[in-house]
Amino acid sequence: MENDGNKNQFSRRGFLGVGSAALAAVAGGLSVSSAIAQEGQQPGNPRTDRSASDPGPTNNGLDPQNLDSAWPPATDSKSLVQTFKYPFSFANKRTYKGGWSREVTVRELAVSKSLAGVNMRLTAGGVRELHWHTADEWAFVLYGSARITAIDRDGKSFVADVKKNDLWYFPSGIPHSIQGLEPDGTEFMLVFDDGDFSESETVLLSDSVAHLPPEILSKNFGVSQLALKNLPKHELFIFQTAVPGPLEADQKAAAGALGKSSTDFAFRTMEMPPTKRTKSGEVRIVDSSTFKASTNVAMAMVTVRPGGLRELHWHPNADEWQYYITGKARMTVVSTGNRARTMDFQEGDVGYVQKTLLHYIENTGNSDLVFLEMFKSSFYQDLSLSEWLAHTPPELVMAHLNIDRATLDAIPRDELVVVPG
Ligand code: MN
Ligand code: MN
Fold first, then answer.
1. Annotated active-site residue in 137, 235, 347, 373
2. Ligand 1 mean position, distance from CA 131 (Å)
3. Is the pLDDT at 7 greater than 70, yes or no?
4. Which of 31, 37, 123, 288 has its C-alpha lying 20 to 30 A from 416's C-alpha?
5. For the whole model, what pTM was predicted?
6. Out of 3.40.50.300, 3.40.50.720, 2.60.120.10, 3.10.129.10, which CATH number does the structure's domain 2-39+64-87+272-410 have?
């Protein structure tokens, strides 16, 4: 890299560092400088226009990952749109023998009021201890496999094994646990239907018994205080123990005379066909219509091939919490009051779009982009910009956009979800 203060030379908007309108003008025979003049107040080539240079301190690790913040597209507004990105890389891990966890809540990402995320790793045998909480818990397995346990509202037991891409859902107040299985445990993303949730604010079995008088526990369980002398004095949260035995044996032992729960708190995402598929990608939508237990959280799992675009759309019913599983992306959110902002995303990032705001997600990398769209809602809902324009009286649309009939007719009539590059 040349040491000339030019932080923009690897911008995907071209090595000249000029906007697309300027590049188009150059292609049309105008000089670069007159093309820049036509772009108005946008800085031009940093070799000749010092307003496009950044000679002071720079974070050379983060800036290249966030070019749309360092050098926003000309269509972004000058006034602020609150940040809608938080990388899990910034979240501090709470580490234990047996695994770790970290969270991104409204305290880290102020705009994310409706949902919060917890990323957790458990070794083979590692346990997220028996607990419950006030928020509903939705989960996506990112790696490996786990055994999950719960009891339903009738007290009947649920024990199941889940693998990569599977989901689970534990409603508010339903007690549960998670344990990593062989060969290498698991990693998963938890999404809670409350941005203010914290993994530090859950009711733990260990914490509970540590704060109850021994004589009360003895009386409650009908056993001697001596038998309870080794109860934990502090919370466990995550701890290492032996890998559990066969699933059927655990299910039978937990069910007892009451029998198993009729509720399936788990969902096998890959056993359903994609909800929609084009040559540029696919989407799997899972909400309470397909995953009955998931009464208050809906998911769209989106794959976008290189160059493809998750088309312009909005969600009338809920904010969108995003988790980027793999690949690179950029997203523009068009806010109200003449404001818009573009931000860049990659593996491990959280994104957020407030209810009803127009947005797209473009694959800007060379590999598949896979991300989750999460909603605090019993049902998934979106509206596509193309679909709207195609189903509005044509003269009305043409009068707004100054386009001819052939152009309007070329716009897709139906929602595609993922459109080609
Ligand atoms: Mn939980
Ligand atoms: Mn969306």
1. 373
2. 6
3. no
4. 288
5. 0.90
6. 2.60.120.10
From ligand 2's centre to the CA of 352, what distance in Å? Answer: 9
CATH T-level fold of 90-267: Jelly Rolls (2.60.120)
Ligand 1 centre and the CA of 258: distance in Å? Answer: 24
Q: Do domains 2-39+64-87+272-410 and 90-267 have the same CATH topology?
A: yes
Per-residue pLDDT, 40: 55
Whole-number Å distance between alpha carbons of 158 and 166: 16
Domain boundaries, the chain: 2-39+64-87+272-410, 90-267
Percentage above 70 pLDDT, the chain: 90
Q: Is the pLDDT of residue 366 over 60?
A: yes
Q: Is 373 a catalytic residue?
A: yes
